[in-house]
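Practice problem: predict the structure.
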Amino acid sequence: MLSQYFKSVWQQLRRQPVISVVTVAGTALAIFLIMLVVMIEQVRTAPFAPESNRDRFLHTYCLLYSEDNEKTNSISPMSKNVFDGLYGNLKTPEAVTSYIFITSAQLVSVHGKPSFSVDVRGTDADYWRVFDFTFVDGRPFDESEFKAEQKVAVITESMARRLFGTTKCAGREFLMAYSPFKVCGVVKDVSTPAYYAYAEMWMPHTLNHDYEEFSGSLSVTILAKDKDDFPAIRNEVKNRLASYNSKIKDTGVKIKDFDQPYEQRKASKVSLSRNYVPDMEKADRTKFIVFLILLIVPAINLGSMTQSRYRQRISEIGIRRAFGCTRMQLMSQLIGESLIITLAAGIVGLILCVLFSYAVSDLLFIHTLPSVTLNMPEVNIMMLLHPSTFLWTLFFCFVLNLLSAGIPAWRASRMNIVNALEGSTFNNR
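Answer:
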């Protein structure tokens, strides 16, 4: 049965080459544009190392600090004191980490080689429990080194090669801002769209000596044991916030959290320049409208092409109907044949989308970097291709096929048999 569908499709493609090429190209372009939108969203939200647990992440970027009965407001990451009060030793999550909100560019060097700039992020020792880095040499710094403010660092393979000419350099020293640092571990390079994990060098953030009482430079990522624990974690944080605000009442400061922590998808919609909770319903509506436009516009044009193909098959359709083929059978056969063409074109569109996204990643994903890094975003094929990518492609191919072939197939199935055998155009019975 399936082989007959393929034979019929192949014959139709050969019989009408111009219309077939335009149909395949139009379908491929539609899927290309739709999947481009999907992939940009996936790079922000889908899991990939070292953020493989994005589906279990909760993030807190900044907090709102109100003073003088909310007459004065400021937005900033939190200090170590606020982190300890709100997120220290939470009972529900698997792990909680604090890290410097934005990477900073610092000069590093070794004797006999010119210095160069790298992106540095300060973290705590639990950072290595939350994010799944791949160590090629050494180990992460531990809690004792973090508390003792030791000048140790984890660096990437690229930085290790530039400094020492090898990735096997655990225990060796280099200079940063004229201060000696010891390499305790080397990890595989991290892609810049993995914002929370990205840096070229990681060191204990206790070295920054953040003495502010409330506002500071720390953000938080929580790793839940299961995403079903999100409500319990948020509730625990809310209770902590209420308790902490009671303790600091005499200072005249009140902290607000904008309903944080946010799951990965909601956190990706945060605007760092505005103090509001991301409107996910509005974001979903916008995305739905974009998909609708990208589907309906090509579907109208493809529908005309499909109508033209069916007009060339009037006699064949009449013979099928004359030999007892029901309207539903005929309609399903026509839609099935069209679906094969749509799927083939959809695969072409997906391949083109992946290649395009890979080639111009520095343009597509630059907005995912709320950082001062000068490094352009880089993606790999595995970041673009997920199981959900293929499922989305199949879904959009099915919808596009239904929109473009559904009405022409319905009209063809309702043709008058006598008119069809005579070769007349579509004429409902």
